[in-house]
Amino acid sequence: MSALPNLPRVFEASTTIFGAYNTIKALERSSDTPEKLILARILGYLILEGPNDQARVKVAQEVNSCKTDDDKYVLGKTYMQYFLRVFRKTKGRTPAHSSQVSHPSFNAIQARLRDKLIRPPEDYQTAKRDALIRDGHRCPISGAYDRESLKIYPELRDMVLKAQVPAYGLHCSHIFPDIVNKGVEEDPSEETSKTATAKANYAASVWAVLERFGYTTLSEELDGKNIHRLDNILILDPVAHDHFDHLELWFEPVPGRKNTLLYQTLRRVPNPQLLELHAACARVARLSGAGEYIEKVLMELEDSKVLAKDGGSALALEYALIPWVNAEIRIEA
């Protein structure tokens, strides 16, 4: 957790940002609990590390409109729940590879994928299969190959054995998670009406925040099965996947080189906007201390199964449960 620095000169020309940041710095100094301190710093680092200029100005305007310090803490909590929380996954799923059908040659299927990538996959399993082919069945960070793919493609297995490179069970990770997908559930009967309403309320609030930040088309672009489109998918080894989902790893563009995010060799790179959002969340979570605090308290809750008597666990518990709580929360875009 890092104390808020002085406002960089590049932002001083904006009276909106200048006034809001000074207000946040005062709020940071007066915060008398770790939870309040984190909420104040979330607001400050959203201005410093926000995904774009519109997001920074919007946060500053909202800070300036707050009448009391409590209003500012509520605002910080709003962004923790409906911005940081979106990209910090609490658990993931990685269905096993299916080898029950005959598989064409590894090289032939790679060649035919060029045309297929234009259309989004129908489901998670298909998205993982196509993304593995897109990425050459390897993690772009570590270079490790997918262990299951070696069983399917003999020529790939021979190449990996000859090169003596590692192979693991690679994971398929959505950059933007399907928890906020407003499309129809695959099996609506599995969800109670109360849970479905809670998820709908949460998703609506998330999209409202993102629209305020200028991402006005994402809700439609990722609706329904489009959540599985390949530019929303990363193939990562287990370690990289865990760090990415916990906001400890993120991608940033290389200055002066378009679409260079460790993906310059791919035929279809992940969506820069989605990586931009994930990176902003990761930076704010790390610098504000929100990520470390939430991780620590959730681990304590898992170990002890008991809440702190002084209410010190309340913020983390609310963070974990908010998508499943049937609360009517309205956030205007």
TrEMBL record:
Domain spans labelled HNH nuclease: 159-247
Domain of life: Eukaryota
Matching InterPro entries: HNH_nuc (IPR003615)
One Pfam family named in its UniProt record: HNH_2
UniProt-recorded name of the protein: HNH nuclease domain-containing protein
